[in-house]
Amino acid sequence: xxxxxxxxxxxxxxxTSAASSPTASSSRFSLPSAATLVTASKSGAGQRPNIxxxxxxxxxxxxxxxxxxxxxxxxxxxxxxxRVSGINDLERRLNTLGYRVGIRVLELxxxxxxxxxxASKREIRLLxxxxxxxxxxxxxxxxxxxxxLEKSVENAxxxxxxxxxxxxERHISVPKxxxxxxxxxxxxxxxxxxxxxxxxxxxxxxxxxxxxxLPNRTTILIKLEKSVLEREELLK
Length: 236
Prior knowledge:
Blueprint: H1 13-16, H2 34-43, H3 66-81, H4 87-116, H5 126-142, E1 148-151, E2 158-163, H6 167-170, H7 185-197, E3 202-208, E4 218-224, H8 226-235
Antiparallel strand pairs: 1-2, 2-4, 3-4
Helix pairs in contact: 4-7
């Protein structure tokens, strides 16, 4: 049994390797004593509001600085870019990160809806669900609604959400060798997660559609699964 735990997990080794022997311990990694913890609690040093104690229904204090979000997202893109083999892989990973965010956004929105309304309901029809994403999800994540929601005239299973100035693209400088990259793949992941959570599975991708006046204009393309259209026909 001792040999199985001879080497710590790589994600934990940075600290445990330095503290593996009693003589190698450092004050940088030492835990405060019980007396120190008691003194801190009595003096009020640890009385700062805890994020877990905030009321989830209050949105005024939940807003995040746009510059802070842009800086964090830029770091995420740079970190991910160093660990991928190409544009497709980078967009796939950004999409996966967005999907994780979208799951939590939907949970939060459902919680707030159920708390504020006695007769809350989950959207099961396609168009109201897309309108909710266009308006409420965009406002919850980016602080404003998207600019347009359009239906494809060629394919009945395709819808498009248009954002003329995406926050995730605003402070991103894409080099020429990555000119086809759309960082809004992160947003596409959010949309895909919300649709999956609402029982409307779809494949969601992001495409840069710039114009002379709107160089960052982006289209989020939603391609619905066949089962969604079949259910819509039954609900008519």
